[in-house]
C-alpha cells in the first residue's frame, strides 16, 4: 500500500487508522531517515490507543513505554551498539502483551520476529517541509489481514 502524506496532521491520522487494527503481540517496523516522521506516526498510534502523555523518539534511551491499552513498547535502534539489545531485554518485551513499534529494526544484532507490519517513510522531494511517501507492507497472514483492513479504511474515505 502506497500513500502520500502531506503534513503532520495526516501522519497522525494515519497512525490512528493503523492503531485501530493493532492488538497485543503485534509488531510494527518503521524505517526512514532521521526526521522523516516515524515518531509522529507512533504519536498518532499512541493517542488512538489512549495514551495522552508525551511521545518522543527513544533515540538515546533505546526504548520508551507508553501506558496505553495495550501498552506500547517504542524502540529506536539508530544509536545501537553491538550488544545493546542484550542489556535492553528485547525478547522480554516482544513476549509481553503489548504492541512493539520498532524504528531502525535492521540495526539490531538480534533476530526480530519475521512476521510484522512494515512501514517505510521517505521524503518525496528531498525537503522536510514537503510531502512524504509511506509504503506499508505485511509479512505473514496475520499482518496481511491487517493491511487489507487498513486499505479498506483509507479507501472508504475514513481519512
Describe, in short, the structure shown.
This protein is 30% helix and 25% strand.
Please provide a written account of the structure.
The protein has about 160 residues and is an alpha/beta fold. The chain has helices at about 10-20, 40-50, 85-90, 90-95, 140-155, and strands spanning about 1-5, 25-30, 65, 70-75, 100-105, 115-125, 130-140. Helix 1 (about 10-20) crosses helix 2 (about 40-50). The longest helix is centred in the C-terminal third of the chain and has 15 residues, at about 140-155. The two termini are about 15 Å apart. About 35% of the residues are buried.
Task: Furnish the topology, listing elements before pairings.
Elements: E1 2-5, H1 8-19, E2 27-31, H2 38-48, E3 63-66, E4 72-76, H3 84-88, H4 90-94, E5 99-103, E6 116-123, E7 132-139, H5 141-155
Parallel strand pairs: 2-5, 2-6, 4-5
Antiparallel strand pairs: 1-7, 3-4, 6-7
Give a quick set of tags describing it.
single chain; 159 residues; alpha/beta; Rossmann fold; 7-stranded mixed β-sheet; 5 helices
Give me the Rg, rounded: 15 Å
H/E series, N to C?
A: EHEHEEHHEEEH
What is the count of β-strands?
7
Mean pLDDT metric: 87
**Fraction of residues in H or I helices:** 25-40%
The fraction of residues assigned to DSSP E strands is: 15-25%
Strand order of the largest sheet: 1-7-6-2-5-4-3
Can you count the helices? Answer: 5
- What CATH first level of the domain at 1-96 would be assigned? Alpha Beta
Helix/strand class: alpha/beta
How is the CATH topology of the domain at 1-96 named?
Rossmann fold
N-to-C terminal Cα separation, in Å? 15 Å
Major sheet size, sense and barrel closure: 7 strands, mixed
